[in-house]
Amino acid sequence: MKYSIFSLLKHTLTGHKNWEPAWREPEPKADYDIVIIGGGGHGLATAYYLAKEHGLKNIAVLEKAWLGSGNIGRNTTIIRSNYMLPGNNPFYEFSIKLWENLEQDFNFNAMVSQRGVLNLCHTDAQRDAFARRGNAMRIDGVDAELLDRQAVQEMYPFFDYRNARFPIKGGLLQRRGGTVRHDGVAWGYARGADTRGVDIIQHCEVTGIRSENGKVMGVDTSRGFIRCKKLGLAAAGNSSAVAAMAGLKLPIESHVLQAFVSEGLKPYIDGVVTFGAGHFYVSQSDKGGLVFGGDIDGYNSYAQRGNLPMVEHVIEAGVAMIPSLARVRVLRSWGGIMDMSMDGSPIIDKTSIEGLYLNAGWCYGGFKATPASGWCFAHTIARDEPHKLSAAYRLDRFRTGSMLDEKGQGATPNLH
Amino acid sequence: MPKAPAKTKPAPVVESMLARVSPLASVALQGRFGADKGAPGVSFSVRHPLSIVTVIARAGKGKAVAASLSSYDAQWAGPEQYFVVAAGRSEGALYRELKAELDGIASVSDQSHGRVIIRVEGPKVRNVLAKGTSVDLHTDEFAVGKSALTQMAHVGVHLTRVGEDAFDLSVF
Amino acid sequence: MLIACPHCGTRPVEEFTFLGDASVKRPTSTDPSSMEQWHDYVYLRNNPKGRFDEYVHHSGGCRAWLVISRDTATHEVFGCVTARDHGKAKGGVA
Amino acid sequence: MTSYRLPKGGLIDRATTLNFKFDGKSFTGHAGDTLASALIANGVHLMGRSFKYHRPRGVISAGASEPNALVELREGGRKEANTRATMIELYDGLTAKSQNRWPSLDFDIGAINSLVSSMFVAGFYYKTFMWPKSFWEKIYEPIIRRAAGLGTASREADPDKYEKSYAHCDLLVIGSGPTGLMAALAAARSGGRVILADESSRLGGSLLDEREEIDGVSGLEWAEGVIAELSAMPNVTLMPRATVFGWYDGNIFGAVERVNDHVLAPSVHEPRQRYWRIIAKRAVLAAGAEERPVAFGGNDIPGVMLASAMRTYANRYAAAAGKSVVVFTGNDSGYRTARDMKAHGVHVEAIVDSRGGTKADAGGVPVLRGRMIADVSGGKAVTGITLDDHTHLACDAVAMSGGWSPVVNLACHRGAKPSWNDTILGFVAPDVGKDFIVAGSAAGRMLLSECLADGAKAGTLKGRAPAIPKCRDEAFAVSPLWWVRQAQGKAFIDYQNDSIAKDLPLAAREGYRDIELAKRYTTTGMATDQGKLGNVNAIAILAEATGRSMDQVGTTTFRPFYTPVAFGAFAGPFTGHHFQPVRKTPLHDWADELGAVFVETGLWMRSSWFPREGEDWLASASREVVATRERVGICDVSTLGKIDVQGKDAGAFLDRLYCNTFSTLAVGKARYGLMLREDGVVYDDGTTSRLAEDHYVMTTTTANAAKVMAQMEFAHQALFPDLDVTYVSVTEQWAQMAIAGPKSRATIQKIVDGLEMNDQTVPYMAALDISVLGGVPARLFRLSFSGEHAYELAVPADYGNMVARAIMQAGAEFGIVPYGVEALSIMRIEKGHVAGGELNGTTTAADLGLGKMMSTKKDYIGRVMAGREGLVDPQRQCAVGIRPMNADDRIRSGAHILTQGDKPSMANDQGYITSVAWSPMLEMCIGLALVANGRARHGEVVQVWDGLRGHKVEGVICDPVHFDKENRRLHA
Ligand SMILES: Cc1cc2nc3c(=O)[nH]c(=O)nc-3n(C[C@H](O)[C@H](O)[C@H](O)COP(=O)(O)OP(=O)(O)OC[C@H]3O[C@@H](n4cnc5c(N)ncnc54)[C@H](O)[C@@H]3O)c2cc1C
Ligand SMILES: NC(=O)c1ccc[n+]([C@@H]2O[C@H](COP(=O)([O-])OP(=O)(O)OC[C@H]3O[C@@H](n4cnc5c(N)ncnc54)[C@H](O)[C@@H]3O)[C@@H](O)[C@H]2O)c1
Ligand SMILES: Cc1cc2nc3c(=O)[nH]c(=O)nc-3n(C[C@H](O)[C@H](O)[C@H](O)COP(=O)(O)O)c2cc1C
Ligand SMILES: [Zn+2]
To answer: A35: helix, coil or strand?
Structure first.
């Protein structure tokens, strides 16, 4: 049933007793054409587009815990397309375009909110790097503005312009960047996929991958063996663990990234701002909490929680940027497991095993990619060939030496 | 390394010129700071000028080096590494002496100007240092004479307990 | 997280820098034909959920490179040796 | 207004009266009051408005879990939003404002929300506001955002200071009630280092709130005795006002001590708060238990509060919650409230007990057994109640008790989940090992005697546990009491987020059956109190709605922070200018004397230009360049990393680190070196000099000094451990200056001791050990970054300023100028030397035109991987020079390169400009760029595309060396 102000009114009159479930809770079937491992943003979006764009029906999404329990449910919700490398920018810009029509598309209000993403710079070298990046965006028709110090000050007068250790010199602004309600994305795709016949199976952990003479057969799960013709891995932080079930070793490390939310406040920061002289970025949720984060803790982890040094590191930077934050209180902290790749860019590709497809390596930046990733991964699975927008995300790029290294950090995942 | 052949007479020496100026000269000022009730809890002083030399044992020479340093004020500064500290030595003298003495068994580098040593002492010294370092400075854990490499306020420090209530902080 | 450095004693995690998988072994050949081994050495990583041997630099202390054994699911640290000794134990170098 | 202050009793100091303001109105209270108790004593119950429906709200609790009575405390830069009135110690001059209401707390427009509230069910916004599309951002969202949040944060800088500190102990005791006190006592007596932390202003825990008897004295007196003994022990640290907010790996606890939140403003030299990182060998969680509300109609009307809170206000603060009280309970603790209130002379109308048969001591108060409160009547204050059998009772306050929940938060911060216990009807902590023991009521032990014994056991590190004091136990019997279905009005589960009992079955119906999904869909437990009071009720209702057990539903994930922590506490002193250390070079004072403008480069402050009267940076830098190229200039290059490399294998080691060879370098000579990463990409560059057979000194770029050192340590210790080599940073030991220009030799000659400088004694690339000014030891290198005949002179740091001044004197006759990093950079671009802009972590040696440096005779880091097809592809972007076609045009770094005639698009992108300078020698803009197949394109005219800054000109690709291609000046 369609969600709208009218359905809401109708149900209000009947005391909200007759709302239908947003999705079914089906028992896993013995056999599917396509199984997607991972009920996160990418897995659900992939299933949604497989059904919607490729007309495929017999699909299951297997999620080991609850729907959206992974990074989709714990990220800081920033969307942007301010990438500079040819292999990256068109992909992320396509994603933004999908975001811009997503809610009408899957009939769920995910609160896509393009209030701008502003990256601050503090040195001439940083400004030059932003100029390079901004031009890379503009050259392909993506919006970008280079702000000087005064323009930044007009947007955010209460940042530190007097006593800063690293004075703010300006910033790179993408007005079409912003935030999206993370849970809404998972739920919207799940509901959209479910209504198109996809089985979303929660609390079903994949424990093994079976293949026969180089062809994938199915998966062993906590709820029994499930046969499938094609298998898509969209396990994000757990990618290495899942790929290992198929005997694949990946150019990926799993790292914990912490995030934080403050107590609810009246409107304080309108857009998304990232500090350029330390690891800190912040935006304000529709509920009033300042949602912020910084760098990964730096050690391999599957624990979904971090430690105090990074908490201090992030908040020191936050107060350096906004001195009045000192009196705001941080309410909660949590962590998610990043699939950090060797060049900081993702992988959407076929694998050496026929029928086994890989979607991984999203680092801390895969939320914004959710629609495009689902779109391109669905295409890769359905057509058994990469989509042109994700053509650079090949697994063999490390062999051939065509890495996509936006930061220039090399094969050190925890520096990307 | 080859000394360049002397051909001309040395440039005129202006005595005062040879005086070393501490990098903290403008920072470490005389006076009383912080809470001014009662006797001072801690006092800071800069030990300057000093001769400070790093000594790093060559492969397999750790014991030999340790032995030959027994007669010096040599503070542990990492695996088979030491800071040798001396006051009142003329420029480069300690460095040259150790270089000669440890020739072949250790690498010797002069750090007299590279590091500065701050003496922190007083009844509250441990409370103050606890605001900086994670090292447990309780007497049972960190006896007089012990050194540690750690961090304070985002800066690497070499910490030595020189008395019950006195520590030396050596920093770059 | 606390790590017992063989040189410095037990120190908190902020004094250390992590480099990851210590099972990798640098190939000895410089011949282009060894490219595949080099690819694996530079790019492929053990990334287990559970016990893990990893390179750690005591960058905020004695600056020794260490190898610690740690559970990546619980962050429990089981042991710590110098990279040197680890290399010897592994037979040859990293 | 009539006073609700009880005539006697309480831990308040009636002798000291304190004045305070709430919403502009003046009140008085006493020392020992909290803002909440003082307001209650003044008969003020209405303290805030709720989040969604703007319902009038008063206190529910008397402690940290308070969801309703949140106020804006203080003003200006000290303003603090969402501060719990129940935790604010009253001080003279306190000012507070209520939140989330307009125009006033009493009359709040937002309250109309509650009229249409039936439409605002859980998750309603996910279902609407989608049409028309554009309305979301323009209309709907701004409204939602304005409605969101409770308090307003200040936009002024916080004037107060914060501190950080580490602490180490054998036992950390969290909570100072009977359990905690016994634990601390046991550990302290056995000689351990003990820290006892409690978030309350005063140690004693529930013994301050309850009327107990221990060892024949009142619980309070007993606690005082123990605290006195503890405070006399040197091995014990008592920390009141200290909240332990999180448990982390390695048994490290985070705590924040509110050093000065109980005064108007901290005295100078004192911090507002102190953040503690406590490294504990063992810890005891003695956090007690939290009473639960009950979900009935109007359970949020001011005057309705937890039974234990009503007791606390009476017993600890001598404040009566009302004149006539009804108690609603499903367990024995409600009876305690009835008796205590009666003892304080407050009329207790009745005890409403949901249980049938119970023989708990009501102290003569009438008990209505097997009955429940369905609804509370009243708007901004309670006027009465209606029972499930429709009988009505008049009263002005309601005490409720739905049971008790052990405070297990900290024990669950590292992932363990609590489990349901059917006897106490609460989730009890999991076993998390011997280093962190949960004890007392936090462990589900609800009797005082159990708590005392449990604490003693948990705290005993060695030897015998101390004797357990004797005490009288209050009965503890409890049966389930979650939600009174007969309720007509709203029955709240999460007060602050306005989630109501009905929301949970709805969430289940819609598929959000997992507790984590229900939490997110209904926002239950997501407010500032994190569901401390309401979550268990939510779990119970969801369990019922989905036919699962409490354990099957389970709790949501417990996360730090136990209670919210101010950003300032985490930032500590590292704010403003002290965010990061400032590094000054040994030549800083010298440069400062000459009017240098300093610019941040990493942590360093570098002299960037030396402006004269009326010069801007460009005029200054240009003049510095011309003067240097025509005469002589001196520049501070001390920030370059300098590493002393020694040992018999020093040369072999450098051969591994650099792609070119150093073992063949002659003693007394320097050589430029290029370092790759193992993936074959350029990492760093710099000159390395050989001072002796077994002694080199290498230089790194300023930016990479630390990284290169770490790389060397790894290479030696992990990759090539058999090499006999040592290395140590000597960056700070040397003040280093570049002296460049035709007159550089003549200038230096005047200060060197006993050395006739000429091309034989100091040839190009020489590295000599000399002395200057009659005895200052020095190193002289004949190196040139500027392309001029030039030297670098290094002297021990403490002599730096003095030597630099001497050089200025010596060069005066030649017209020497100091030059800064800007001029340095102009000259290196004129000479086409690569630097930061080109060494960007993605370029190869070949890209930079340095491919010839890569040795083919040895193993070195990066050798093999540098040979990958993608890295040797001729189409790669490589370093070229770039100039505007028209000499008057300006080009900027960051601009991109397009082939003539091509439309702007990423597909057509040929590369970008990495560095630009206005060359005073060529009198035009020149630059370096990375351009696809660039080396083959010298002379090609291209578009310099800078759409970002709305600027497009024609440029021509050229050789990177813009000036003095033949290098004549170098040897002049
Ligand atoms: C704190 C934080 C902040 C972030 N901030 C941003 C941001 O601001 N912008 C941005 O673009 N990106 C951000 N990211 C990154 C982004 O969240 C992720 O890249 C993205 O969500 C990953 O894709 P996903 O949603 O499919 O992953 P997930 O939601 O993690 O989906 C993977 C799913 O696979 C399931 N799974 C794993 N193993 C198995 C198995 N064996 N069987 C069955 N199921 C399994 C997991 O339970 C999980 O639900 C952030 C991430 C974190 C943690
Ligand atoms: N009336 C009843 O039904 C009932 C129910 C349960 C418990 N009790 C009684 O309550 C008492 C429980 O004693 P106890 O010692 O176990 O607990 P307590 O309630 O006496 O003390 C707990 C203390 O821990 C502090 N605290 C909690 N979390 C903290 C944190 N994170 N950081 C710092 N401090 C923190 C609180 O401020 C409080 O002072 C016993 O007397 C028991 O009989 C009564
Ligand atoms: C964008 C965003 C906003 C959040 N806002 C809140 C909030 O207002 N209150 C809250 O308690 N938690 C908030 N959280 C954190 C969640 O409660 C939860 O901690 C997070 O999704 C991780 O899940 P977990 O803690 O159950 O592992 C928010 C999380 C995100 C990603
Ligand atoms: Zn160490």
So the answer is: strand
Amino acid code (one letter) for B145: G
The pLDDT value given to residue D50: 87
- Percentage of the residues of chain A whose pLDDT score is greater than 70: 100
Kindly give the pairing relationship between strand C9-12 and strand C2-5.
antiparallel
B166-to-A356, B44, B131, C61, D874 alpha-carbon distances in Å: 65, 10, 16, 21, 64
Interval D60-71: pLDDT, tens? 999 999 999 999
Q: What is the pLDDT of residue D111?
A: 72
Is D164 within 8 Å of chain C by CB? no
User: Of the bound ligands, which one is closest to the alpha carbon of residue A74?
Assistant: 3
CA distance D557 to chain C (A): 16
Tokens 């110690």 belong to D89
B131-135, D18-22, D132-136: the lowest-pLDDT one:
D132-136
CA atoms within 13 A on the CB side of A369: 30
How many alpha carbons fall within 13 Å on the CB side of residue D230? 29
Per the structure block, which two tokens stand in for D414?
Answer: 């590292």
Find how far residue D44's CA is from the centre of its chain. Answer: 37
Which residues of chain C lie closer than 8 angstroms to B150, CB-CB? 8, 11, 15, 60-61
**ipTM passes above 0.95:** yes
Report the distance separating Cα D807 and Cα D737, nearest Å. 10
Which member of A16, A163, A286 has the closest CB to residue D145? A286
Do β-strands D426-428 and D583-584 pair in parallel, antiparallel, or remain unpaired? unpaired
User: What distance in angstroms lies between residue A330's CA and the mean position of ligand 3's atoms?
Assistant: 12
| pLDDT average, residue stretch D696-725 | 97
Residue C33 touches partner D, C-beta closer than 8 Å = no
Q: Which two tokens stand for residue D113?
A: 């929300």
The predicted-structure confidence for B100-145, as pLDDT tens digits, reads as follows 999 999 999 999 999 999 999 999 999 999 999 999 999 999 999 9
Q: Strand A224-233 to strand A252-262: parallel, antiparallel, or no bridges (unpaired)?
A: unpaired
CA distance D710 to chain A (A): 14
Which of the four pLDDT bands, split at 50, 70 and 90, describes residue D53? confident
D213-214/D194-197 β-pairing: unpaired
Region D58-82 average pLDDT: 97
User: Of the candidates D389, D306, D307, D385, which has an alpha carbon nearest to the alpha carbon of residue D60?
Assistant: D306
Is the Cβ–Cβ distance between D305 and D69 less than 8 Å?
Answer: no
Residue A4 or residue A24, greater confidence: A24
Q: CA nearest A258: which of A280, A242, A287?
A: A280
**Any atom of ligand 2 within 6 Å of the Cβ of D178:** yes
Question: What integer is the mean pLDDT of A291-302?
Answer: 98
- Atom nearest to D526 CA in ligand 3: 11
Q: How far is the CA of A355 from the centre of ligand 1 (A)?
A: 23
Q: Which of D238, D240, D252, D258 is nearest to D283 (CA)?
A: D252
User: How many angstroms away from the CA of D523 is the closest CA of chain C?
Assistant: 28
D230 near D238, Cβ under 8 Å? yes
Average confidence score pLDDT of chain D: 96
Taking CA–CA distances from D247, the nearest residue in chain C reads C1
**CB of A398 sitting under 6 A from ligand 3:** no
CA of B81 to the centre of ligand 4 (A): 12
Contacts of D547 (CB under 8 A, 6+ apart): none
- Per-residue pLDDT, D114: 65
The crossing angle, in degrees rounded to 10, of helices D650-657 and D705-714 is 110
What was the pLDDT predicted at D2?
A: 60
Residues 6+ apart with CB under 8 A from A14: none
Q: Are D322 and D383 in contact (CB under 8 A)?
A: no
Query: A329: which strand partners?
Result: D566
What kind and span of H or E run contains D931?
Answer: strand D924-932
Q: Quick check: pTM over 0.95?
A: yes
Report the sign of the C-alpha dihedral through residues A341, A342, A345, A350, in that order.
Answer: negative
